[in-house]
Amino acid sequence: MENNIMLNKDIFWVGKVDDRDVPFHRLTLTRGTTYNSYLLMTEKPTIIDTVDMKFGREFVENLKNIIELEKIAYIIINHTEPDHSGALGSLATFAKNAVIVCSKLAVVELKEMYKLHNREFLVIGDGDTLDIGGKTLRFIETPYLHTAETIVTYCVEDKILFSCDIFSTHIANYEYFNDIAKEDIKNDYIGYYNLIMHPHRRYVQNMIQKIKDLDIKMIAPSHGFILREDVKSYIDIYDTMSKSTKTSKKALILYSSMTGRTKKIASFIMEKFQEQNIVSEVMDINKTSREEVLKAISEAQAIFFGTSTKYADMIGNMEDLLKSLNTINLEGKLGATFGSYGWSGEAIEVVQDYLKQTNIKLLNTSDIIKGTGMIDVQLPIRIRFAANEEDLKNIERAVIYTTDLLLSTI
Fold it and tell me: Helix or strand or coil: residue 353?
């Protein structure tokens, strides 16, 4: 473990530089990374985040050289992913008196991941504060940056934002601070934004609004360089990149309905796209000419295909339409499926199979989880009988996700 680096009076970096080729989200970080953990040596000593579980023992042994672990009062976990919380189990074994501080959503995950069912947790929410004896910490919820339970921590007196994954870089470095880096870090900084944050761009804007009135003199992220020079310029990069949108996108919702329930789903999808300022259109493919439908498909950037299920099959003209898609180049377009059903809803899956044979980018939950870590976007949209309140929330999340993809593409 490296030397402990002072950020400000009584605040130290106690993390780990990982200069391997690091496996990360099905990629390899050829420049390595750092796991930034911070120790606040106040009257109530506090750890903010830990390191990857691979280095848990090393992390704990290093801390033993700095502080009696039983004196640690709080362990703050901004994000439960193991590159942040990985050493929590090891640390909690020795820091027997520490209260674990995290968001409500994080509690169950941390208890299950590290067998902490008998430990004391302090659940915090937006705007809550914690006095750690000489310093005040304020907490801000930043969901989906990049998972639902994520928070950031602001030290009021020192004006330091402990920003979790936000404002990070994936670079193994021993300079620690951006103002003494051997090279310009902005390309790596922007690359990290594009990889991790841009798929969640609407939540970046929510975060910007939450921190805009904070006096931030330093940003201490979970990975890479600590930002203490030109801090505002780095915040501005996130602000600018998350606003840069194309506004000429169009969504098309095609459906074939038996009882009217799939039609209602189609109308709701259109309504939610319109709320996102996406031009949208609904078409009943059984009442519209094939030529008109194909023309609309060629003009749209996102196409939702919906059908009811009857005797395990699609209804109306849906199958004929799907067979004719090979006459259109669907490259660059987003596709999704939906429908109401009464038993097992095979027709929705058959539509999926047809779309897989085209070059449309077919949206599905499996790819969303692998690409973003988001587990609450359900595609295809499968509604048994009539949509209930939870179904409508699921549809809205799917539309928001699709909108974010639309606005992220050039």
Answer: helix
Ranges of CATH 3.40.50.360 domains, the chain: 250-408
Angle (CA) 264-266-269 rounded to 5° is 110
DSSP 8-state assignment for residue 198 = G
Is residue 356 exposed (0-12), middle (13-18) or buried (19+ Cβ within 10 Å)?
Answer: exposed
Nearest to 110 by CA among 71, 52, 149, 140: 149
* Environment class of 67 (CB within 10 Å of its CB; exposed 0-12, middle 13-18, buried 19+): middle
- 8 Å CB contact between 22 and 48: no
Q: Which residues contact 396 (CB under 8 A, 6 or more apart)?
A: 272
Domain range 250-408, its CATH number among 3.30.70.600, 3.40.50.720, 3.40.50.10490, 3.40.50.360: 3.40.50.360
The pLDDT tens digits of the residues spanning 287-306 come to 999 999 999 999 999 999 99
pLDDT average, residue stretch 225-247: 88
Q: Contact 79/35 with Cβ under 8 angstroms?
A: no
Is the CB of residue 265 less than 8 Å from the CB of residue 381? yes
The CATH superfamily assigned to 5-243 is Ribonuclease Z/Hydroxyacylglutathione hydrolase-like (3.60.15.10)
CB 382 within 8 A of CB 306: no
- The per-residue pLDDT of the chain, averaged, comes to 93
Q: Are 406 and 301 in contact (CB under 8 A)?
A: yes
Per-residue pLDDT reduced to its tens digit, 320-370: 999 999 888 999 999 999 999 998 899 999 999 999 999 999 999 999 888
Contact status, residue 104 vs residue 128, Cβ threshold 8 Å: no
Q: 267 vs 89, 270, 329, 378, CA distance in Å?
A: 49, 5, 26, 18
Residue that is written with structure tokens 């360089």 in the block: 225
Q: Are 13 and 38 a contacting pair, CB within 8 Å? A: yes
**Residue 149: strand, helix, or coil:** coil
In sequence order, which residues have a C-beta less than 8 Å from that of residue 101 and are 6 or more positions away?
Answer: 74, 75, 76, 77, 121, 122, 124, 130
* Most distant pair of Cα atoms in the chain: their distance: 76
Distance CA 324, CA 326 (A): 5
Q: Are 79 and 147 in contact (CB under 8 A)?
A: yes
Length of the chain: 410
Beta carbons within 8 Å of 78's beta carbon, 6+ residues apart? 48, 49, 84, 102, 150, 151, 152, 153, 162, 164, 222
